[in-house]
Amino acid sequence: MSKFLQILVPAIAASAAGFLPHKLFADWLPHWVGAHMEGVQIKVPPYGPEVVVPAALTYIEPGLAYLAAYVLVRKATPTSSVFVRALLVAALCLGLEGSIVRMPLMQLVIGNPLWVTLLQHAGIWVPYVAASLVVAYTFELVGKLGANPSIEWTDDGRLRPPSSAAHVKR
């Protein structure tokens, strides 16, 4: 019972701590933004390099967050496969912002059709899953390359396995 409460009470407290400010901002912020943006022109897609370049350069921020999450998940689940750990990272990141169940459900509640909701959220889920898979497999590959100095690059840009690397004259 104590473990159950140790999980349930903080989860409820965190939910309330996140939902209350969200509700306050959701009630007044759209009206405030609308009033302050009246007559203001903003850039719209497709964006030019003046938007794409800063967007790409600052994407290191979530990249570092994916890496930190993967390292923590890797330490917590040492017997899990890289694929499973990557999916756990994606689920953790999506879950932190309520994008697995909450946001799609709320889209349906406010009246969006199911197919629109699924397509909108596929656009959210796919980058998280892709980035999580890339960070996991890249982290493991770089770790293996660093741990095994006999792995080398061939002249045509492929990896030479340790068994054949030992037979190469230097």
What structural category characterises the helix and strand content?
mainly alpha
The H-and-E topology, N to C, reads as: HHHHHHEEH
Gyration radius, rounded: 23 Å
How would the global form be characterised? extended
**Number of contiguous helices:** 7
Helix content: over 70%
Number of strands: 2
Strand content: under 5%
Described by strand count, sense and barrel closure, the largest sheet is: 2 strands, antiparallel
Spatial order of the strands forming the largest sheet: 1-2
| Quaternary structure annotation | single chain
Mean of pLDDT: 91
Taken together, the total number of domains comes to 2
Instruction: Note poorly predicted spans.
Output: none
| Terminal residue distance | 65 Å
Describe this structure in words.
The chain is mostly helical. It has two domains: 1-42; 44-165. It is built from seven helices and two strands; from the N terminus they run ααααααββα. It has helices spanning 2-37, 49-57, 60-76, 82-96, 102-109, 114-147, 162-165, and strands at 152-153, 159-160. It has a two-stranded antiparallel ribbon. Helix 3 packs across helix 6 (114-147) and helix 5 packs antiparallel against helix 6. The N and C termini lie far apart (65 Å).
